[in-house]
Amino acid sequence: MLKIHQCLGALCALALAATLHPAVASGAWPQQAVRLIVPYPAGGGTDFSTRLIASELSKRTGQEFIVENKTGASGTIGAQTVARSAPDGYTLLVASPAEVLVGQIAGQKTAYDPKTDLLPITLVGETPLAITVHPSVPAKTLPELLALSKSEPMSYGTPGVGSTMQFAGESLNLVAGTNIMHVAYRGAAPAITDLLGDQIPMAIVGMPPVINLHQTGKLRIVAVTSERRSSVLPDVPAVSELDGYAKYRFTNWYGIYAPKGTDPAILEKMAQWVGEVVRQPEIKAQLQQKGVEPVGNTPAEFAQFLREERERYEAVQKRSGIHIN
Question: Structural domain tally of the chain?
Fold first, then answer.
């Protein structure tokens, strides 16, 4: 009888193990290299931050965390790669709002649904957008800039239609009652080039590429779009400081995602590790130097953040009609 019970127990254990994800069934993850898919070219801000974190995770776990750059179709090729990967915790996505939120709201067609095909793990960090003007523009503050735009025609450049930056600009138009015309470029670099050449008076771009230009007087950042001032440029006010703009917040954040079906234990473990890494003083300092404010929250907190962001962007889209043709 004892032998029968032992056999039944062993069979039950085997059956249970078969239903579990391999990493959980074996009691450990990771047991092999983990791929972090970055849907942008090497050398950019997200790529730098991801490589910094990957190096620390490799040291911490004894397993390699490999950064792979899969570009194309405005970042959606990389996101699609992860969405179609096995949910085993060994292929993860590092993405910005464009691939997992803003593009979909602006009508971009993708072969995956970011709401259902990707699971949020952790918000790595946020980078403010910079409302930047050419030095020839007489306005020294955002209120002065908005007042100037009401007295003469003005335009602002962004990296493209349906970008986070266009949403920030159109939200500003809606709140301020202005009609600053949007000029879409194919990326931040050409927008900044035209701004430097005084071809456009104003641009809304990610903060990192214009920090040095602001500090050297070649351009002027009149405000940042984050909830608080940036630690890199503490003298530049946040839009939210103005009366009537308390809820104004647009950042170029990036987070880590897994394919749907990935075991929650893996999500929690990865989130914990990333949070611990980005809060290390030396890592935090390196990220902040690049304009990134580290976060490193839990999957539940990141999911709530995404819900709030979706509501914010959908409200702007509904009122402004932003749409990717």
Answer: 2
Q: How far apart are the first and last CA of the chain?
A: 72
DSSP assignment, residue 142? H
- Strand ranges inside the chain, DSSP E: 34-38, 65-69, 91-95, 118-126, 129-133, 155-158, 181-184, 202-206, 220-224, 254-259, 293-294
Bridge partners (DSSP) of residue 128 are 251
Query: Taking the complete model, does pTM exceed 0.85, yes or no?
Result: yes
Q: Under a CB-based contact definition with an 8 Å cutoff, are residues 160 and 184 in contact?
A: yes
How far is Cα 323 from Cα 231, in angstroms, rounded to an integer?
33
Query: pLDDT tens digit string along 270-323?
Result: 999 999 999 999 999 999 999 999 999 999 999 999 999 999 999 999 999 999
Supply the range of the domain harboring residue 60: 29-127+253-320
CA 308 – CA 311 distance, rounded (Å): 5
Rounded Cα–Cα distance for residues 19 and 248 (Å)? 46
Rg of the chain, C-alpha, whole Å: 22
246-250 CB contacts, 8 Å cutoff, 24+ apart: 248/171, 248/172, 248/175, 249/225, 249/312, 250/129, 250/164, 250/165, 250/167, 250/168, 250/171, 250/225, 250/312
Q: Does residue 237 share a domain with residue 136?
A: yes
CATH code, 175: 3.40.190.10
Q: Look at residue 227 and tell me if it is in a domain.
A: yes
**Burial status of residue 322 (CB atoms within 10 A of its CB: 0-12, 13-18, 19 or more):** buried
User: Which amino acid is located at 77 in the chain?
Assistant: I
Hey, what are 238's tokens? 């946040």
Q: In what order do the strands lie in the sheet with 65-69?
A: 65-69, 34-38, 91-95, 254-259, 118-126, 293-294
Last residue of a domain, one of 207, 241, 275: 241
Backbone angles phi, psi at 313, to 5 degrees: -70, -40
Same domain for 133 and 123:
no
